[in-house]
Each structure stands twice: as C-alpha cells, then as structure tokens.
Amino acid sequence: MAQPAGQTQPAAISIDYAVQGKPLNPFWAYFGYDEPNYTYMHDGKKLLTELSALSPTPVYVRCHNLLTTGDGTPALKWGSTNAYTEDANGNPVYDWHIVDSIFDTYIQRGMKPLAEIGFMPEALSTHPEPYRHHWKPGVRYDSIYTGWAWPPRNYSRWATLIEKWVRHCVQRYGEKEVATWLWEVWNEPNISYWKGTEQEYFRLYDTTAAAVKRAFPSARIGGPATTGPSWDKAARWLRDFLDQCAQTNTPLDFISFHAKGSPKVVEGHVRMNRKPQLSDVSNGFAIVKASPYKNLPIYITECDPEGCAACGMATNPENAYRNSTMYSSYTAASFALIADLADSFQVNLAGAISWSFEFEGQKWFDGFRDLATNGVDKPVLNVFRMFGMMRGNRIPAGNAFAAADQHSLSVMVWNYTDDDLPGEPLMTSITLTHLPAKKVKVTHYRIDGSHSNAYEVWKKMGSPQNPTPAQYRQLEAAGHLQQLDAPQLLTVTNGALTIPVTLPRQAVSLIKLAF
Q1: For 59-75, what is each residue's pLDDT tens digit?
Q2: Glycosyl hydrolases family 39 N-terminal catalytic domain location, by residue (predicted)?
C-alpha cells in the first residue's frame, strides 16, 4: 500500500529533557476575521472568552473593516463602524461607538487588538460608488472590492482621522494598555484589497505611521500585510516596502505578510497542500532576513490552509476538511513546521494569525473556516488549547512539538496526512531521557473521531439544524478538549521513560508530564 501523501510522523520520537532551547513563544495565540461586528454578538463574545482562556499570555485579535462606513450590520466578508462621515457641509464627523464596542469586548477579556487600519470610509474614497457589497458564497469573489478599497481623496483628512482614533484609544484605555497593542496599515495591498498603486500604498503607510506616532509615540506600527511572498510580485512588494521604509526612515516596528495553503478535491476526496503556505513563510522569512530589518518581530497576520474563510463547503467542496480532525492535524503539523522555519532562518517570529473565528447565525457545520459553529467548538479549536497548555523552553523533537520547564514536559504529536481518506492508525512511541524525577504524572489529551470532536457527535445525532437544549449541552461538552484516559503515575528508570502512543488517522495528542 502506498504511503499516504504528506504523512509526517516517524515511527518513534526521542526527546531529551536536558536539551532545552529558547523559551516557548506563544506565536499561535493570534486570531482574526473579516466581520468585526460579530465581535460583540452572542456567539462572538462566547468564543472570545474561550480564546482568552486558552492562552497563558494575552491573545491578540485582528479584524478587517474597522473604519468601513455603514450602520454596523454584519454580513459575510463585510462589517462597518461608521467611524468617519461628513456632514452636509463636508465637515468631518467622528463616531467611535461601534469600534469602541469591538475593542471593549477584547479588553474586557484581557485580549489585545492587532488593530488593522482600514478600510477607506465612503466619504474619503476616491471612488466611493459602489460601496456596500452583498457578497455570498458562490458569487464572484472580486465583487467584494468596492469603494472601501480605494486610496483617500484627501490624505490630510485621512491622517487626522487616524490621529484622532489613536488619541481616542489612549484616552479611553490608557497609555499603558495601548502601548501593548499593534497597529497594522491596511490588508493585502498587493491585490485588490488596495485599488491604488504600490507607490500610493507607500504614501498611505507613511502618512498613517506618522499620524499614529504623533498621537502616541509609543505605539507599535507595521505592515505591509501583503499576500504570500512565494509569488514573485508579492515578494517584490515586500522587498520594495522594506527598502522604502529604510530609505525614508519611516517608522516600522514590525513586519507582516500572509501565508496560505491550497487544498483541492482529488478523486472524490480532499487533498490538502501545505507547500504554498510553507513557501510563503520561508520566502517571507528570507526577505526579512536579507533586509535592514532582520531583527524586527514578524507577524504572519493570516496563516491558513487556504484563502477564503467565508467560502463554505457547499460552494467550495475542497473546504470540507474544516469540520473534521483534518483541520486539527493540519494546524498542529503546519504550526510546528513554521516554528522550525523561524528557528532555521533565525528570525523573530512573534505571531501567526489563524484567520478563523465564527459566523453568527449560519447553518450548523456548514464548512466555514471557523473555530466554532453556533457556539459549539470545532475540533481545530482544541489544537490551540493544547498549545496553550505547553510551558517553558522548546525542545528539539523531530516531527513532534515539545516544551519543558522545571516541573513539566509536554509533547504534541499528530498523525497528519494530506489526503482525507480512512487509514490504519499509526503506532509510535515517545522516549524521554534525562527526566529529573523518579515518578511522573502523565496526562494524555486527544483530538480524534471520538474525543474533543463535536462534529462527530452532531452527525450521530442525525445532523440537526435545530438541536434541542439537551443536544446543545451534549455538543457543547463534546467540543471541549478531552483526555484519552485517566492520568497515570509512571516510574522513571535511570531518567528515562517510553510512552507508547496509537494515533488514528488525523488525530492529535498532547502528552503532558508533571514532576
């Protein structure tokens, strides 16, 4: 039988507790989404509460449309705050109440905004009509690029808007708090999210960065949030941007770009493709490493298996992976590889944003790229819970992901394959050496077909679109991270311990030792 495409787990894993590297960086504690008005809705607040609880450090959240004109009514790939309008005489009118509702929701949960500065208010757009789009899955994707994507007709008014916004945030939340935020200029300006030229984006960045720093010199500003640097044109944009900032001494506190994979349907099943995503990451790292900014923090402000969170599996069958443990194992395997790439390039990877949140009021398990559906967590969310339970310093672990501190050691392992096909479980083992204890408590957490998996429970219920209260409670419990079995107290012999692990296809395990 042929080896499944993309299988990554070796037959055995060896981990030496004594070989500890640099502190574990919670680069995974970053999330984002298109629709900002979902933030303060019922399921949005519930999910944000869960995300804030899963990380030992503050979770950062990025969303589009923070300056888009509109009444705050959410829709797929749309949102608005009405922060800037003009009165009948053409005078600016500033209204922060919707954007405050968004940031308040984060701050109340101990979260931090990665504040994306965009998009263009209707009254400032050089091409305002049409402005509000009504996109839905199956409609041409480029129909979303309307008046909000154009440069400002008046850069001075744009600068004043940004300066007032930042000053307002400092007044509302305090200097100490806002100093921990990140401000990013626009989104994917090298494609149709920006209808201006490259040079016009550089002008927008320069103008915006200056306004942010005038308002609050301690603010951290960055960009350019370009699409995948594996494309020649995107790579050129990123290099040109860094060169421009260096030549003009423009403020730049961090660098951002995006990385996406490309699944497809092959012979009736989904086949994932991490190669474009990992090429984006490695090319982006290489560009930064060769620039004058090689030591700056890097944020991959969208880091996903593909590019359209709001494209469900009904219109895009290649996205059927999203409900299942395939999304979980892909995320575990790809994030571990991204951490290894950062180590290899010796760059400062600060964060990788999973562009996945929730879609309020949609059908149950409709194949959106989200972390929860109708308030019930999907299997993929439990991978982030696993990452959040890891502490201490990184330990080399081959195709596993490991970390340890004085009193614990955690190992994440997975049985990921590119093809969404049934297969035999993987029989492996984890051998741990130089453990500083004679006995250890071992807790085994698992994501598979029968653990931490509300989707499989929902299907067994008959896939109800209107679950009863009792069914909802059952689904809610099934969506949480579960243990494979009861914790065990194991004896360590001469500092060594071997733990056998059987991993079903697309399963993820976290083995946590306490001593």
Answers
A1: 999 999 999 999 999 99
A2: 13-478
